[in-house]
Amino acid sequence: MKPENFNNKLRHSIDLLHKSEALALRYSDKGFYLAFSGGKDSQALYHVAQMAEIRFEAHYALTTLDPPELVRFIRSHYPDVINDRPKLTFTQLCIKKKALPTQLMRFCCAALKETQGAGTVTLTGVRRQESVKRSSRRETEIAGSKGPKFRGTLEQFDQFTREKEIEGVQCVKGKDKIIINPIIEWSEADVWHFLNEVVKVEHCALYDKGWRRLGCLFCPMASKKEVLRQGAAYPKYYALILRTIHQLRANGYMNSYPDLTDEEVFNWWISKESIRKWYNDHKQPNLFDCDNIKPI
Fold first, then answer.
1. What secondary structure letter does DSSP report for 295?
2. pLDDT tens digits, residue range 256-282?
3. Shortest CA distance to 67 belongs to which of 237, 226, 186?
4. What homologous superfamily is domain 6-209 in, according to CATH?
């Protein structure tokens, strides 16, 4: 069954691409930089861009923690997508940052993914329905190195540049980029209807294995249960994380409790707890265990 208002949403997405193409071409004769992840949302974005017949170049940002099934899917079904290799591997990045990434310090995404497309008009498959954090996103944005500089409609973006008395192309400096989110108002049902019934394309097999969202293995945003499942399914990548932990500790980092093994440091990392709390709960004897209190 077709989701309510789907045709209107699709038409608006295509219109937005048509209206913003001239801006994209002012930055690059290749047109838009389309950020492709291989997931359902970026697939929908890719095929909407094709339907709109606008000029774009699709890129997938490799991180060295990419699920092999996802990489093979992109290579097989989207051979025109360009694989951008990172300057630093995940391990090298952690050594540089002197830590593993966490939910509060997610430098991996910032360095390996979010800086891609700098200096362009970038298309993303972000949808507001996905999360509370993304609910504040808008169809047109200016992303700066220190956070968003503008969020609104394309018309509001034009007004913003006029009020600042600057050209649209001058809004982007250094690592900044203008972002267009054509499917920002789409629901998950819209996406699956579009892929399955409109363009009729295959999706990555990881969805059929229970994955809800596709991304890097051992993402600090993933739940402990999900990370443990990934460790069992991808032992080579689990070994890579342990080697990274070992190298960090060999260089004098993450050694607050040197009696911990690398595996225990991994277990702390995926627990989302502070190292002190995890250590006290798992390594220190409970000094206040009432069963051990003896009468004087």
1. -
2. 889 999 999 999 999 999 889 999 998
3. 237
4. HUPs (3.40.50.620)
